[in-house]
Design brief:
The chain is of the alpha/beta class. 38% of the residues lie in helices and 15% in strands. The two termini are 30 Å apart.
C-alpha cells in the first residue's frame, strides 16, 4: 500500500444507484442486476507492483465495499477480483462509475454484497509506468495479485470493521480482462492460492492463434489499437520485437508510436490527428502473390465485412512485416489456426513477436477451481476461436472431476438451461439494436449496428450477469 488509509472517492447509496440505473441508457443493466440492496463505498487503492520487464513501479485500483442495512451488506463477505477491458485512456480508473464496467460491477456485485477489487493496471491512472504491459500474462497476474493484497490491507480501515473478507475469492474479467482473469487464476493456483471460482469472459486466451488469424487476414474490430498496444508492450518488456518501430509500422506512424498508448487523447482524436488508422491494419495490396486470397479473406461470410475494413489506404503495419509474419506462420504453424491439429501453440516460432505471443498464450494449463467461460460465438472483436481452443484443450487434459463450463450466448436454449433468460434477453437486445438502426436509416437490416455493439455493449452485461449466477453456486 502506498497510501493508508485508502482514499474514499465516492459513496453511492442504494437509492442513488437505483436512480442512475433508471436512466434510459442504464435500464438494461438494471433489468439484469435488480434493485441495489447495499450502499457502495468506493475507494482508490495505490500500491507497488512491477512492469513488463519486472521493473518496480506503482499501480492503482478501485475497492468497492458494500455497506448499509440491507441483508448481506456487512459482516464477512466474498471478494470479486475483476480485470477490465482494453482502454487507451491514460487516466482510466475503475473508481469512476461513469465507466460502464465500473457501473456494472457496482450494480451486479458491490450493491449485492460483494467486496469488489478492480485494478486499473500499471500504466493507468496514478501509475508511474510509462507504458501498459498489455496481455503480458506474468505481469498482469502480478498486478492483480498485488491489488488484492493492497485491498485486503486497506479493507479493515476502509470498512471500519463492519465489512470483512469471508475467504471466498472469485476472479472475473472481460475482453482483455478475460485474458487477465485467466492468467491470474493460473498464477494463483500455481502458487498454491485458493480461488473459489472464476469466470473469464470474451478474452483472447489463445493469443498466438488469434494473432495468426489476424495476420492471415481475419482482422478483428479495433485491430490498430490492440496491435499497437501489444507490439509496443512486448517491445518494452522483451526488447527484441523490433530494432526500430520503422521495421514494423508504416513511416507515418512509426515516430513516437512506442510511447503513444495509453494516451490523454480520445480515440477519435488519435484518428483525426493521423496518429493511428481507425480500421486499416494492412495494405490492400497483397504482400506476395500467394496471399491475394487473404487480402482480405471472404469467409466466413458473416465476418467478411469486418475483415475487409482492416485493409486499405493509410494502413498501420508494413507489408514487409506482414510477409515475414506469414512466412514464419507457414513454416512454424500454430496447432489451432488456420488448421486445428494439436490445438497448441507453434513449438518453435522464429519471429520474435510470434515467440512472445507463444510465451503469453494460455493454452498450457488446467484449472483447479470451477471455471465458466462466457461470450458470443460471432464476436467480431475477440474471436470465438479463443474460447473454443481452450475448451478443446481442457476437454483433453482436465480430469473428469474438473468443473469447466462454457456459455455461448448465441447457443440455443436447452432443457434445464440455467441461462435461458439471459440467452433470450441477449437475442432481444440484438433485435432492439438492429431495429433502432433501421429507424435511423440503416439499409442493411441493422447488421452493421449489431456488429459494432456486439462485443462491448451487447455481450458484456449478459456475461456479467451469467458470472454472478455462476458464482452464486459457491
Amino acid at each position: 500500500m502506498l497510501q493508508s488509509p485508502a482514499q474514499l472517492v465516492s459513496t453511492m447509496t442504494a437509492p442513488s444507484l437505483l436512480v442512475e440505473l433508471n436512466l434510459a441508457a442504464n435500464q438494461p443493466l438494471l433489468a439484469l442486476s435488480g434493485a441495489p440492496v447495499c450502499d457502495v463505498l468506493i475507494y482508490r487503492i495505490q500500491f507497488q507492483t512491477v512492469g513488463g520487464a519486472n521493473e518496480p513501479t506503482t499501480a492503482s485500483g478501485a475497492l468497492m465495499v458494500p455497506s448499509g442495512f440491507g441483508s448481506g451488506c456487512t459482516g464477512a463477505r466474498p471478494i470479486l477480483l475483476y480485470a477490465h477491458g482494453t482502454s487507451t485512456d491514460r487516466s482510466f480508473t475503475m473508481t469512476d462509475l461513469g465507466n460502464a464496467e465500473a457501473l456494472a460491477l457496482a450494480a451486479l456485485f458491490a450493491s449485492q454484497g460483494y467486496i469488489v477489487v478492480a485494478p486499473n493496471y500499471a500504466g493507468y491512472d496514478t501509475s508511474t509506468l510509462a507504458y501498459h504491459p498489455y496481455l503480458i500474462a506474468e505481469q498482469q497476474s502480478k498486478d492483480m495479485s498485488d491489488a488484492l493484497k493492497a485491498a485486503r490491507t486497506a479493507l479493515p480501515l476502509a470498512s471500519a470493521t463492519l465489512t470483512s473478507d469471508n475467504g471466498q475469492l472469485f476472479v472475473a474479467g472481460y475482453s482483455q480482462g478475460g485474458y487477465v482473469a485467466m492468467a491470474t487464476q493460473r498464477a494463483m493456483e500455481a502458487a498454491g492460492m485458493t480461488v473459489t471460482a472464476a469466470s473469464p469472459m470474451s478474452g483472447p486466451y489463445a493469443l498466438a492463434a488469434f494473432a495468426d488469424a489476424v495476420f492471415y487476414g481475419e482482422v478483428n474490430g479495433g485491430a490498430p489499437i490492440s496491435t499497437t498496444l501489444l507490439l509496443t508492450a512486448y517491445q518494452a518488456a522483451y526488447g527484441n520485437i523490433y530494432a526500430s518501430p520503422g521495421n514494423v509500422f508504416e513511416p507515418r506512424y512509426a515516430a513516437g508510436i512506442g510511447s503513444l498508448l495509453p494516451t490523454g487523447l480520445t480515440r477519435s482524436e488519435l484518428y483525426a490527428q493521423g496518429l493511428l488508422p481507425q480500421y486499416a491494419l494492412f495494405s490492400a495490396t497483397p504482400p506476395a502473390a500467394q496471399y491475394a486470397d487473404i487480402t482480405p479473406p471472404m469467409t466466413p461470410a458473416n465476418l467478411a465485412e469486418v475483415f475487409a475494413a482492416g485493409f486499405g489506404a493509410g494502413n498501420l503495419i508494413l507489408n514487409s512485416y506482414r510477409l515475414s509474419y506469414l512466412t514464419d506462420a507457414q513454416a512454424n504453424p500454430d496447432g489451432g489456426f488456420p488448421t486445428v491439429t494439436t490445438g497448441l501453440t507453434a513449438p518453435s516460432p522464429q519471429l520474435p513477436w510470434r515467440q512472445a505471443l507463444q510465451r503469453n498464450d494460455l493454452r498450457n494449463w488446467v484449472p483447479v477451481a470451477p471455471v465458466q467461460l462466457c461470450g458470443g460465438d460471432v464476436d467480431p472483436v475477440v474471436f470465438w476461436l479463443n474460447t473454443q481452443l481452450l475448451q478443446d484443450y481442457w476437454a483433453g487434459h482436465a480430469p473428469a472431476s474438473a468443473s469447466i463450463g462454457v456459455l455461448d450466448l448465441e447457443a440455443p436454449v436447452s432443457t434445464s438451461d440455467a441461462y435461458t433468460d439471459l440467452k433470450q434477453g441477449f437475442q432481444a437486445a440484438k433485435t432492439l439494436v438492429a431495429a433502432d438502426a433501421v429507424l435511423q436509416g440503416a439499409t442493411d437490416g441493422g447488421i452493421a449496428a449489431v456488429a459494432e455493439a456486439y462485443h462491448a455493449t451487447l455481450v458484456a452485461p449478459f456475461c456479467f450477469a451469467a458470472a454472478k449466477t455462476f458464482f452464486s453456486r459457491y
